[in-house]
Amino acid sequence: MAEHISKQFDMELETIRTRVLQMGGLVEQQILSAVDALMAGDMARFDKVIAEDALVNALEVAIDDDCQHIIARRQPAASDLRMVITVIKTITDLERIGDEAQKIARMGKTIYEADRFQLPRFREVGKMAEVAVSMLRRALDAFARLDPKAALELAEEDQQLDQDFAAEIRQLITFMMEDPRTISMSIDTLFIAKAIERIGDHAKNISEYVVYLVKGKDIRHTTLDEKKRETLGLDD
């Protein structure tokens, strides 16, 4: 980003960038904790993830407030305005990822608290979670490095995550058809898999905001081929 005459303005922009990454780190830890608790049946950890969602919400409000003050005081234009807009959009997606992590924890508690004849196998869900966390890390790294090319990789990976989710649905339907006693457990597991799939969607969104920040192009709701043209084929 261009350096400003006002060093204070530069510091304010860098501060909100740093706080976004801090929020991203907290959200990532929430996902990992929720999934680890799911694998281990750790009720205390479920409760911790649920309680700490309030920290994520508070960070979103605080960063959003900082952005509003920057707009009011500095009246940013061009790339500076895109930075502030990108931050506002990114923290919205991060807050929603935090909500999905909390949902995983809540559904995990429901599964382990229920008196069921068997517990679900979470192997495929765990694999999906690894992909989603990796996508979030790379989206945040792209934001930190102002690298728009990551959006292409994440768009392709999000398609694969969607396919994995569809495969999980088919498997759960098979379980329910073969043994009606698995219906309740399978539905809870489906909600967890859907939460993970949504985390991938939000990570992809964040990477697309980076393209807007760097290139000034909005590539949301475009095909993969259009994303390639806009991200790789345009001058800065």
From TrEMBL:
Its main location: cytoplasm. Gene3D superfamilies: Phosphate transport system protein phou homolog 2, domain 2. Transmembrane segments: none annotated. One of its GO terms (biological process) is phosphate ion transport. It is found in: Cytoplasm. Pfam families: PhoU. Belongs to the PhoU family. Homodimer. This is Phosphate-specific transport system accessory protein PhoU. The lineage of its organism: Bacteria, Pseudomonadati, Pseudomonadota, Betaproteobacteria, Neisseriales.
